[in-house]
Amino acid sequence: MTCIINRILPTIFKLLLAVAIVAVPPDDALAGAGDAASTYGLGPINAGSAQAFSAFEPGPWAVYYNPAAMARSAEGELSAVIQYGDQELRAKSLGGSDPLTRESDVLSDNSSELVLLGIKTRIAGTSESDTSRSMYLGINVGADEYISNILPYQANTAEQGQFLRYELQPLYLAFGAAVRDLVSGVDIGLSARLTLAAKARLEAVSDLAGNTDSEQLSLEAKPSLSPALGINIRASELFCGHSPWRRSSCMPFGLNGLEVALFWRDETNYEVSVDANVVIPGVIPEPGLDLALSTIDSYQPQVFGGSILLPLGKFELVASVEKQNWSELESKFAGDTVREQAGLRFNDVVVPRVGARFHWSDQLRFFGGLAWEDSPLKSSRSQDVNFLDSDKTVVGIGGDYRLKNAPIINAPLVLSLAYQYQQIEERDFELTSINSPSDPAPFETVRADGDIHLFSLSASMKF
Fold it and tell me: Bridge partners of 124?
């Protein structure tokens, strides 16, 4: 009996793997389009300010961060972004009862290569001069590996350890709308991000060598929408009205230009399920053996946040704070076939961000930002999955130059460039594996850390 089982199991897993390869294309790239918005920031202004300005930037990327921000500017915009991230994620062995043989401390040094496209346009309004009650529409899309990898996906266990927030992610797609002055001085926006639930089904007859016939394979993907809501408040207009003399006398301490943004984003994740039914004549008769795999990828937590923007002469200062509800991921992983045994625990985290922008001239601006992000991963041990994650400090800097009338296109063009650095702090983890002779005790302790360098370049045509 043991001999038969040992021959059957490899066959079964070959079939299941075949379906998984079709439904879940493997790849080695990291931090793809699906998590670029939250991990790095979309476009130079968000990457270069460590997302401090994300609640107020009126371009197309406001669709993700705060859709109400689209109403801050009457200009339409068509923007193309190229982002390149150089990631070195490390796990240094601290020894153990049965440590792995490692060539180096570097766990992953793959790059992140993204193309992002976004458009924002005015779709309704009273006139060009009066923007009251104007409506705006925005759409963005992003793809990994410079569009050569549209829907990558991976979910796996890893004896050597794997990082929680820098793994491969699927296609990014979002759209939304905003209305200016729903109430005097108050803009509101609503958007949605598209996610997918992919399903694959295989029915096959096989021999013990894994050769199949009578195969029936079906694939389907169901879209779902994850909403986001934003509100922007211009304090002087809300409390003082539109009259210039009232505005100047109403707000104390020079706070005439003060703006407040409130935003909420629902959680998102991509789901994949694989079902296989195998019949092996003489060993597994009809109705066959059912195998099932269900897992999630590209999880982003529910976020509540607020930001304050204060113009001071040629400077703009911004402070932001957001609460990320990572604890909801515990229930998601409890039903995840790949990770259910890991017993992962997560904390909700609060992320503060600060930033500044300097208007050197009408054409040239410089900006920068700083953020501190605590790790949501509470567990320092996760059976077989061996997730690694740590607190990180994010700093960014950048600038943009506006051509009032660019050649050929005969329209204003803004060229932007930003650099972001992320330092992942050191943190110790215990690695465990069911294949280790020390199981359930850990076989190795590692110290995780990392450095990430990101460059973001964009060209934005205004209209």
Answer: 135
Which pTM does this prediction carry? 0.84
Task: List the beta strands (DSSP E) in 94-211.
Answer: 106-108, 111-124, 135-144, 162-163, 172-183, 186-206
The length of the chain, given as a count of residues: 463
Q: Is the pLDDT of residue 125 over 90?
A: no
Q: State yes or no: pLDDT of 172 exceeds 70.
A: yes
Residue-wise burial string across 44-80, b where 16 or more C-beta atoms lie within 10 A, e elsewhere: bbbbbbbbbbbbbbbbbbbbbbbbbbbbbbebbbbbe
161, 133 Cβ separation under 8 angstroms: no
Best mean pLDDT range from 31-40, 259-268, 295-304:
259-268
What is the spatial distance between Cα 120 and Cα 176, in angstroms, rounded to a whole number? 9
Report which residue type is found at 301. P
| Spatial distance between the Cα atoms of 97 and 207, rounded to a whole number of angstroms | 40
Strands in 184-283 per DSSP E:
186-206, 212-234, 259-265, 268-280
Distance CA 452, CA 138 (A): 30
Residue pair 193/224 in contact (Cβ under 8 Å)? The answer is: no
